[in-house]
Design a protein that fits this description.
transcription regulation, 2 domains, mainly alpha, two-stranded antiparallel sheet, Four Helix Bundle (Hemerythrin (Met), subunit A), DNA binding, GntR family transcriptional regulator, TF_FadR/GntR_C
């Protein structure tokens, strides 16, 4: 679909459409194709593995730095996020998007708290690209309770400046999500292949 088609369909300017598409392309959600326009990006297991492996490397370092350098205000911000998440635990499913956003904010706040601005920016951008995978893990597999508990344990460890515990929690948290998402994507791929094979018979 082209910028012009989207602009006409949505009733907004092409400038706004271009800015939105540039952001979506940067986040890996759409792909720009010469003379054709934009298409939704394909999400495969290999891309998911690479994204989560990179997250594991970068976020472990971010957690170490946060344990060493986070200020009291960072600790307060992290605890406030967990408190709000706890308050959403038994709410209407419409609040799941907010809980998802808060979960991502835990990771972003920890990255900022470490004091390395370049690392924080890279983690922020990587999390943007991983949102579709995280949402898949939470919604398709209903892992809200596990994610909530893992975020709470991570925040407690960072606020206690317990590097060993914090790095253990973040590594396991990302590894579990990686396994869940990759297994789900591969299962869906296999089902599609079976359906295609069945229809060809």
């Amino acid at each position: 679909m082209t910028e012009t088609e989207l602009s006409e369909r949505l009733g907004v300017s092409r400038t706004q459409i271009r800015e939105a598409l540039n952001r979506l392309e940067r986040d890996g959600l759409v792909e720009g194709r010469a003379k054709i326009g934009y298409a939704i990006a394909a999400f495969d297991a290999r891309t998911a593995r690479e994204a989560f492996d990179l997250r594991a490397t970068l976020e472990v370092q971010a957690v170490v730095l946060a344990c060493r350098h986070a200020s009291d205000s960072h600790h307060q911000a992290l605890r406030a996020i967990i408190t709000e998440c706890d308050g959403l635990a038994d709410r209407d499913p419409r609040f799941k998007l907010r809980e998802f956003q808060l979960g991502m904010e835990v990771h972003r706040t920890i990255a900022k708290a470490g004091g390395n601005r370049m690392l924080a920016r890279i983690v922020h951008d990587l999390l943007d690209r991983c949102q579709v995978y995280v949402w898949m893990d939470l919604t398709a597999l209903d892992n809200w309770q596990a994610a909530r508990a893992e975020h709470r344990a991570l925040v407690e460890a960072v606020c206690a400046r317990d590097e060993a515990r914090a790095t253990q929690v973040i590594a396991a948290h990302i590894a579990d999500a990686r396994t869940n998402v990759v297994d789900l994507m591969e299962a869906r791929r296999d089902l599609r292949a079976m359906a295609v094979a069945g229809s060809a018979q």
